[in-house]
Design a protein that fits this description.
It is built from four helices and no strands. By secondary structure, it is an all-alpha fold. It folds into two domains: 46 residues, no CATH class; 39 residues, no CATH class. It starts with 5 loop residues before the first helix and ends with a helix. The relative contact order is 0.09.
Amino acid sequence: MTDTPDHIRKKQMEIWLSKPVEERFRLGMEFINLVHRQMLSRLREQHPEYTEGELKAAFVYELYKDDLPEDYLKDVMNWMRERHDS
């Protein structure tokens, strides 16, 4: 859902594309890292009892729950738990 008018979205894209590729890449990576930290912070708040492995597994679940088959996702989550809690 977006409430940004088309003419504003077009101007935002114009500004974004006027930046050098290196800056767009850097800003994109900063945004990804920010979202990563926010997700982990939210998960820690919601589940303070989680081990590091459970936290990483929950993070992976949040990222991929709509894109990966459930059985595969469960295997990956188990692997994450074992890897980080050993």
